[in-house]
Amino acid sequence: MKQRKHRDRIVGYFVLGIVALSTLFPFYCMLVMGTHENADLFTGLKLWFGGKFGENFKKLVDAGYFRYFLNSLAIAVPNTILTVFSSAMGGYALAKFEFRGKKFLKAFVYITLMLPGSLGTIAWVWEMKQFGWINTFLPFIIPAMGNTYAVYWFMQVSKGAISTEVLESARMDGANEFKIFTRIAAPQLTAAGVSLGLLNFVGAWNNYLGPFLILKKPELYTVPIGIATFGSQFRAEYSARILGMSIATIPLIIVFACTSKHFMAGVTGGSVKG
Amino acid sequence: MKQKALKQKKLRGGRGYRLAPYLFSAPYVITYCVFTLFPMLFTLFLSFTDWDGYGEIKLVGFQNYQRMFDITADPRFFQTLLNTGIIVLLTMPIGIFLGLFLCYFMQKRAIRGQHVFRVLYYLPALMTAVAVGLLWSTLFDYENGTFNKILQALHLTKENIYFMGTGWGCRLVLALLVIWSSFGSTMLFLSSALRSINEEVLDAALVDGAGPWKTYWKISVPMIKQVMIFIVITGLINAFQMYDASVMLFSSGPSGGLPYGGVDRSCLTMVMLIMEEAFENMHYGYAAALSYGMFLCVGVFSFFSMKMMTREKER
């Protein structure tokens, strides 16, 4: 019996390890390719790091690649902050108040939850033109406040996490509603807010189609547009481009590694259970 | 009882209490209506027009829809449906089976470092889809691809294989990409569902003499059927809207680009078609109709996924 258990364990590690290695292999290729010269990349198989990291890095610097990082941050950070705050307030209101039109608002959330995100893209671009927001970051920051999924999320969390009795006793003490939200409700929503915020940050950072349609000046490009366009004219820049990809991926991996528990709880947070 | 009701009234009668929910939900409702709902409705209006984005908007009735659903006039709408269906069939069964298979080993307490494995499997999902497409186009490239070089180094092939030289080749490479980048989150869903199963049920089965392998597949797995359906539906919705990764996969290989949507447009998705019609060909009206065509197809599935998502939480 004991021996069998031992064998099971080895089989388990073996299977999990093989899959982990094949998952990591493309990442590894990416890291390696970024450290070689183009010519070498195209002639032979390279499975170990080369010495051209500095040169490729310099090409990226010269091309203004790091500007894209600042741009992406300038979008993803405010986007995430606005999403979390606006949705936390909305979800809390839906979960913890009785008010006229609550049924309607709930139905609104459930129905809009079903609308695919890309349904209005064509008219959205036109609308942004009318607003004069082409070539600005506003189209990726302001609309973040209207995130149905996030409102739904906070509504579910608020139901369980915030006790109605505590809210009522605060009201008895004469606290105003805004204070009750910031001092009593919000702290209870922090863990869920972090999970959602992380997911949202990665989504905003990786968004390609929206910025691609709105941002037409190279100095405004975000990281994904940078990757898509960098050196695409010349085959010569291939390895620098791949290095750029590695560099773009590393911040996300670091964020994820530090917060993986929160993060992974966020992925399955809105889902069904068995 | 009466006193309690009175207290309630006092508590909830204040002006602050009455106003607060409206103020709290206003930012969400207003921005959603302005930036999401309005464009959706305006797209619906555009779908009944002929418009190049600049000139006059001409009303044309149902003409766009007629053309879209007429397979002889424009087969592309149905082609994207077929492509999406094929990609889903190529990816979902493998993704879920792989996830279940790995979860079997993750269940055991004897296996340490489960969290580390989960993190590793999830890494591809973090990577920018554009970068994933570009990376895979270099791995599977015809002249300079890493896999071709590995096959030759192992003396398995002599000539370069043109992986993405045919429509089905494109589909297979794209399917691999999708499996790679999505099975980490599939696993998270499966394992969180498996953990929620009542252990007594499983213990009872084990006492009855069923082995762990059999217990897992015969008892645990059927119990999380709901979650598997949920994964399939969300996978389907994503497949309809796939854009970033496949555009990059076919346009950026070192040996030169393939047609938009792959050879024979075998991987053209709904959103790819919409973007091409709107922003390449300047057929805004037709693209808007295609958007609503997509909505018809996705809507059914989103309805079910929403139902499943909300039913559980209400309980």
Describe the structure.
The complex is a heterodimer of chains A (274) and B (315). Chain A is built from 14 helices and no strands. Chain A has a domain at 64-229: Orthogonal Bundle (MetI-like fold). Chain A has 274 residues and is mostly helical. Helices cover 74% and strands 0% of the residues of chain A. Chain A has helices at residues 2-33, 38-43, 53-62, 65-96, 102-112, 121-131, 138-141, 148-161, 164-172, 177-188, 190-206, 209-214, 223-229, 238-269. Chain B has two domains: 2-46, no CATH class; 72-314, Orthogonal Bundle (MetI-like fold). Chain B is built from 14 helices and two strands; from the N terminus they run H-H-E-E-H-H-H-H-H-H-H-H-H-H-H-H. Chain B has helices at 2-13, 15-46, 63-69, 76-106, 114-126, 129-139, 146-153, 167-195, 199-207, 212-223, 225-240, 244-251, 270-280, 284-314; strands at 49-50, 58-59. In chain B, strands 1-2 form a two-stranded antiparallel sheet. In chain B, strand 1 (49-50) and strand 2 form a beta hairpin. The longest helix of chain B is centred in the N-terminal third of the chain and has 32 residues, at 15-46. The two termini of chain B are 28 Å apart. The model of chain B has no long low-confidence stretch (mean pLDDT 84).
Topology (elements, then pairings):
The complex is a heterodimer of chains A (274) and B (315).
Chain A lengths: L1 H32 L4 H6 L9 H10 L2 H32 L5 H11 L8 H11 L6 H4 L6 H14 L2 H9 L4 H12 L1 H17 L2 H6 L8 H7 L8 H32 L5
Helix pairs in contact in A: 1-14, 3-14, 4-8, 4-11, 9-10, 11-14
Chain B lengths: L1 H12 L1 H32 L2 E2 L7 E2 L3 H7 L6 H31 L7 H13 L2 H11 L6 H8 L13 H29 L3 H9 L4 H12 L1 H16 L3 H8 L18 H11 L3 H31 L1
Antiparallel strand pairs in B: 1-2
Helix pairs in contact in B: 2-14, 4-8, 4-11, 5-8, 6-12, 11-14, 13-14
